[in-house]
């Protein structure tokens, strides 16, 4: 394993200019939690400065397809479509492990083969899995905050809830299917469910790219190790859509020690997801996650 690279180990000419990096993340609690250690100044660098914006996940997916941000949170299911232009970062990842998005409907509704369903975006992981399990459903795409109301109003017969929406919903709604169960049926190995990660523009200089990954990794690590304090700061600033109890529950699910850096098991799960998408004709070529990550050994070898 290559050793960690910090700015103080770099030659002085690399520290003379600060690079401004745009970072986009979703406004849901796990992304805010993982990013805000940087925003609060707990992690700093002489090499880069981050400027952030928050957008819903499909907006971020579409923006990444257009190459708008230096770094962006994305749905893992999008990544094979942008792998030539963006590296896959090892940090800031969200996986389900026994849980995940939920397909919900009204208690009184019986779903037909071609039922109408609201999903949170064409390139989300939940959309990929849903399409594999329900190929005849009629899909409409909504902001994830509008999915529950679309089902309640009768605009659609069902919807897939994501983010904090999975924690509570109207009592007239029931779960038709857990996407975790669909994922387990598809992968056959009880692997964690890949949901979201971060991608970095390949046109950035490699030294800058590696510094960004190092800083973001440290930010997630610091956030996880200081969860009560950071959670309270986010809540006090009205940055979170749920109360403190639901926030704790949600962060335990999606922003935890498993979010700091990709594990071998998570990499295996990503490769399965990418294979499923390629086999279904959704991606132009087969890929594996490891081949599209930043070479962390670069600075160690260059300056050793």
Helix and strand topology:
Elements: E1 19-25, H1 29-39, E2 48-54, H2 57-66, E3 71-75, E4 86-88, E5 94-96, E6 102-106, E7 116-119, H3 125-133, E8 138-141, H4 147-153, E9 158-161, E10 173-178, H5 179-187, E11 193-201, H6 206-225, H7 227-236, H8 244-254, H9 264-279, H10 297-302
Parallel strand pairs: 1-2, 1-3, 7-8, 7-9
Antiparallel strand pairs: 3-11, 4-11, 5-11, 6-9, 6-10
- Structural class of the helix and strand makeup? alpha/beta
Number of domains: 2
Give the helix proportion (percent range).
Answer: 25-40%
Q: Determine the strand fraction and express it as a percent band.
A: 15-25%
- Radius of gyration, in Å, reads 20 Å
CATH superfamily of the largest domain: Periplasmic binding protein-like II
Unreliable stretches (pLDDT < 50, length at least 5) are 1-16
Straight-line distance between termini: 15 Å
Order of H and E elements? EHEHEEEEEHEHEEHEHHHHH
Shape verdict: globular
The CATH architecture of the largest domain: 3-Layer(aba) Sandwich
Q: DSSP helix count?
A: 10
- Main beta-sheet strand count, sense and barrel state: 6 strands, mixed
Total number of beta strands? 11
* CATH T-level topology of the largest domain: D-Maltodextrin-Binding Protein, domain 2
Any idea of the CATH class of the largest domain?
Answer: Alpha Beta
Task: Characterize the quaternary organization of these chains.
Answer: single chain
Mean pLDDT: 89
């Amino acid at each position: 394993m290559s050793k960690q690279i910090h700015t103080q180990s770099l030659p002085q000419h690399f520290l003379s200019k600060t690079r401004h990096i745009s970072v986009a993340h979703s406004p849901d609690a796990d992304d805010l939690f993982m990013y805000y250690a940087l925003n609060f100044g707990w992690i700093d660098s002489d090499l880069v400065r981050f400027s952030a914006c928050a957008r819903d996940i499909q907006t971020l997916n579409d923006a990444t397809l257009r190459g708008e941000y230096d770094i962006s949170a994305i749905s893992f299911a999008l990544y094979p479509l942008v792998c030539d232009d963006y590296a896959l970062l090892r940090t800031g990842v969200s996986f389900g492990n026994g849980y995940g998005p939920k397909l919900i409907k009204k208690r009184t509704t019986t779903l037909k083969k071609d039922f109408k369903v609201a999903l949170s975006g064409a390139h989300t992981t939940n959309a990929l899995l849903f399409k594999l399990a329900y190929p005849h459903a009629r899909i409409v795409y909504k902001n994830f905050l509008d999915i529950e109301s679309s089902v309640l109003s009768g605009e659609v017969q069902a919807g897939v809830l994501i983010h904090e929406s999975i924690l509570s919903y109207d009592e007239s709604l029931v779960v038709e299917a857990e996407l975790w169960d669909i994922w387990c049926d598809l992968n056959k190995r009880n692997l964690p469910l890949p949901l979201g990660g971060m991608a970095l523009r390949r046109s950035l200089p490699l030294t800058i790219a590696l510094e960004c990954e190092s800083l973001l990794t440290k930010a997630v690590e610091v956030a996880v190790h200081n969860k009560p304090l950071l959670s309270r700061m986010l809540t006090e600033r009205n940055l979170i859509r749920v109360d403190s109890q639901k926030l704790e529950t949600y962060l335990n699910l999606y922003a935890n020690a498993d979010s700091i850096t990709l594990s071998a098991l998570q990499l295996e799960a990503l490769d399965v997801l990418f294979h499923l998408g390629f086999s279904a004709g959704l991606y132009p070529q087969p890929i594996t996650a490891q081949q599209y990550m930043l070479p962390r050994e670069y600075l160690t070898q260059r300056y050793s």
